[in-house]
Amino acid sequence: MIELLVFDVDGCMSDGSITYTKNGDELKSFNVKDGLAISTWIKMGKKCAIITGRESSIVLKRANELGIKHIYQKIKNKKAKLDEILKQENLTYEQIAAIGDDLNDYHMLKSAKISFCPSDSSIYIKKIVNHVLKTAGGKGAIREMIEIILEKENLQEEFLKQWL
Which of 70, 35, 79 has its CA nearest to residue 49? Predict the structure, then answer.
């Protein structure tokens, strides 16, 4: 049973664009449908983690809005960080699903029981994941990932109960 979802940010939770204002402020956009699925997953008693190579206060704000407890930024070795989370949560790789889109996600994705990438991911990542999603990063890829897991694990009813 999948207990922990692991997300890369740029290219998965967002479309990978990094926009700066003339004052140097960074802008990112997140998909509200992804957010609803993430927060519902957490309401079901499941866990989520963000492991990203960049650092942004916007990511911290979004993670806090959604109730994500594990937020790690500026991470060079994502698999090593995931190992730490697993130890802390007393989980195994058999209980993990992860999404990433580029080479810095490679080892993390290879380790997860179920791995995903958005449709616009690196060709090298597409070759190693279990599921290449139909959706692009930042356009609902996280929602698609969660819905696939819900179906595979027969959790659709429990997911819907959170809203009915």
Answer: 70
Read off the tokens for 46: 């499941």
72: left (phi over 0), alpha (psi -120 to 50) or beta: beta
Q: Which amino acid is at 149?
A: I
- Orientation of helix 57-66 relative to helix 32-43, angle to 10°: 50
> pLDDT of 139-160, one tens digit each?
999 999 999 999 999 999 999 9
Spatial contact of 107 and 113, defined as CB atoms under 8 Å apart: no
Q: 69-114: per-residue pLDDT in tens?
A: 999 999 999 999 999 999 999 999 999 999 999 999 999 999 999 9
Burial (Cβ within 10 Å: 0-12, 13-18, ≥19) of residue 111: middle
108 and 82 Cβ atoms separated by less than 8 Å: yes
SS3 127: coil
105, 84 in Cβ contact below 8 A? no
Over 90: is that where the pLDDT of 164 sits?
no
> For 10, which DSSP code?
B
